[in-house]
Amino acid sequence: MAIAFARAESEKPFGDLAGERATVFPSSRLALRARLALFFSIALCSAAAAGLAYWALQPPVVSTDDAYVVAPLAEVAPQIDGTIAQILVHDTQYVHRGKILVMLDPKDAELDHQSALAAYEEAMRVAQERIAKAKAARANVRIKAALVQQARLQFQRRNRTPGAVSGEEASNAQTALTTAKYELSIAENDAVAAEAMVKELNSSTVPAVEIARIGLARAILRLQRTEIRAAVDGVVAQLHAQAGQQVAPGLRLMSIVPIRQLYVEANFKESQIDDIKVGQRAYLTSDLYGSSKIFHGTVDGIGGGTGAVFSILPAQNASGNWIKVVQRVPVRILLDAADLKQNPLRVGLSMNATVQVEEPASAVVTKRLTPSLRAIARAAY
After folding, report:
1. How far is the C-alpha of 78 from the C-alpha of 239, rounded, in Å?
2. Sheet strands (E) in 168-233
3. How far apart are CA 333 and CA 294, in angstroms?
4. What whole-number distance in Å separates Cα of residue 183 and Cα of residue 137?
5. DSSP E strands: which ranges in 180-253?
6. At residue 294, does pLDDT exceed 80?
7. How far, in Å, CA of 269 to CA of 353, rounded?
8. What is d(CA 150, CA 113) in angstroms, rounded to the nearest whole number?
9. Rounded mean pLDDT of the chain?
10. Hey, which of 45-49, 70-74, 193-197, 367-371 has the most confident mean pLDDT?
11. What digits encode the pLDDT tens for the residues 55-69?
């Protein structure tokens, strides 16, 4: 019987054994899957919470790709009329402040200078002669005063004792005294008239000398202005001057782009400039160098109006076919000088500008999380 039982057990099908094993392994697999799902759920929630916190605590920024490099162009124009004799620069050339760019024909200016110099020297000579005459007239006054004093003493001596001299001598003494006084009066008037022509007896204050000196200074200035110099450091652009060209004051000959004084004019939407303030930090990238090169800047000012207001043909919003268009306000961003020196830019290049708006962390979190929490609440209910 034992042998029959063993044989029966050995002949039992493998399916039953597999069923017994199947009752053991599925429970362990389910537990493992549950633990893995719990682990991945916790990791995913942690990563989402960390990302949400990082996003919420990041300082808010406003960005625009409507930004361009701008510079205060220096227009080069003559201040006097004349003929261009020589052009000493060419387009794209870098020049320093004070460098001679264009030479005008100086012959007319040199003749004017020589004429003014001769007029000044003549005025100085005439003034010195008048000064000498004024001094001589003042010396003559002193001589006449001495003669009056002498005539007075003689008159007093003759009239000291009545009857000591004859009537004729006394009359002559009186006449001599009166004549000396008249001559003194005439000499004083002549001295006053002579000194009036030379103020304070100084040639530099004589009116004629002053007029001649101003004329000479004007002639020297005209001669200096035949050399047209660069007002700033920069690159020559839009050169229109030609040798032999007749020019007039104010005619633009070329422009100089001060590439060390570049700034960015970023046009932000009207809904973005609410939090932009002067002094905030800005980060910019250019299409020239790509996103790998970041330029640092500072907000220097916000425009006084939108671009449409200052356009040549402003919009007529009172018309019947009015369409609302989002307006943009220019924001001036100064670039860091070190960045410009290392990676030069050019006027007109496109930029991507990002301004970091400074707000308290609590305000940032509230502003950013409130819409998300409201959306979650709406989805839950």
Report:
1. 14
2. 227-229
3. 14
4. 12
5. 227-229, 234-237, 246-247
6. yes
7. 12
8. 56
9. 80
10. 70-74
11. 555 568 889 999 999
CA 375 to chain centre: 49
pLDDT score of 377: 46
Beta strands per DSSP E along the chain: 61-70, 74-76, 82-87, 94-95, 100-104, 227-229, 234-237, 246-247, 254-257, 263-269, 281-286, 290-302, 328-335, 350-356
Amino acid at 81: D
CA distance 201 to 86: 48
| Cα separation, 251 vs 255, whole angstroms | 12
Give CA 248 to chain center in angstroms: 27
CB 57: neighbour CB atoms within 10 A? 11
Crossing angle of helices 361-380 and 25-57, rounded to 10°: 140
What are the residues facing 102 on neighbouring strands?
A: 87, 228
Which tokens go with 159?
A: 């009239």
Complete edge-to-edge strand list for the sheet that includes strand 82-87? 227-229, 100-104, 82-87, 246-247
Give the number of C-alpha atoms closer than 13 A to the C-alpha of residue 328, restricted to the C-beta side.
14
Is pLDDT at 235 greater than 80 in this prediction?
Answer: yes
Lookup: tokens for 62: 């406003």
The C-alpha R_g of the chain, in whole angstroms, comes to: 50
CA distances from 226 to 117, 245, 246, 249 (A): 18, 14, 13, 11
CB atoms within 10 A of CB 230: 20
Cβ density class 108-124: b for 16+ within 10 Å, e for less: bbeebbeebeebbeebb
Q: What percentage of the chain exceeds 70 in pLDDT? A: 77
Residue 145 DSSP symbol: H
Residue type at position 95 = V
